[in-house]
């Protein structure tokens, strides 16, 4: 039986105002196709610099499961020149969250057994990934990672997900455990997608984090500075009609099993409400966005 988030959790998410700023940096959802491309181009640039991927003609890096109207791409406010010229250093930090809407998740390629055990226990999974910071003169500080994660955390809650899952390098595991209360669900392995980099499977129980007593320090800070549904209303939705013929569509069509993902996107375009019932909240987001756009 799937784990449900009852009405008892709603008061924890109510505040008169939500904050989208941290210090002098603004964090928000990507609101256009150009901003999503900028975010995933940042990922490519940072992964390339760190030897995790090879150069590709599209100069973009993504995972096929992230190309979905259910995905949330979060970014720091981009400088105007970043959207005008995508060469050189890109001045944003970014992260993405992508729920499993029936096609599996990237971490299934690494931890298939453990991921399926979570699903069999009724867990609704949203993967967190495509994390990068392409800003020059900025350190990849804990505050940036923390502020980006805050958006994914609330999005997962509003979307009816029970768990966030992450593939994390062993040296970063302590941060997620200490500040967010994440637990290890899969032992260290390697990920072929990023040149066999080491990865540990972590899980953050969204429902459990809300009712924990005491709450992890980071979760308490999230709840003190909540993200509202309205803050998420203008996120860009990756529909096939919007990305076909763009660098995202071209990249997707060249990956293994491309027809499967393209057909899935086309089907969601035709029937945005026909998603699994456990993503009904996301379906409403998408349907409303389709009417606006």
Brief characterization of the structure:
The chain has helices at about 10-15, 35-50, 80-85, 110-120, 140-160, 175-180, 205-210, 215-225, 230, 240-245, 245-255, 260-270, 280-290; strands at about 20, 25-30, 70-75, 95-100, 125-135, 165-170, 185-190, 195-205.
CATH T-level topology: Aminopeptidase
User: CATH first level: which class?
Assistant: Alpha Beta
The percent range for strand residues is: 15-25%
Q: Report the principal-axis shape.
A: globular
Pick out its properties.
8 strands; alpha+beta; 39% helix; 13 helices; disordered C terminus; eight-stranded mixed sheet; globular; Aminopeptidase; single chain; 293 residues
Provide a descriptive summary of the structure in words.
It is built from 13 helices and eight strands. Strand 5, helix 5 (142-158) and strand 6 form a beta-alpha-beta unit. Helix content is 39%, strand content 18%. It is globular. The protein has a single domain (7-292), classed as Aminopeptidase (3-Layer(aba) Sandwich). The protein starts with 9 loop residues before the first helix and ends with a helix. It has an eight-stranded mixed β-sheet with strand order 1-2-3-4-5-6-8-7. Mean pLDDT is 83; it is low at 1-9, 11-17, 275-279 and 283-293. The protein is of the alpha+beta class and 293 residues long. The protein has helices at residues 10-13, 33-49, 80-84, 112-120, 142-158, 173-180, 206-211, 217-224, 229-232, 240-243, 247-253, 258-270, 280-292, and strands at residues 21-22, 25-29, 72-76, 93-99, 125-133, 163-168, 183-191, 197-205.
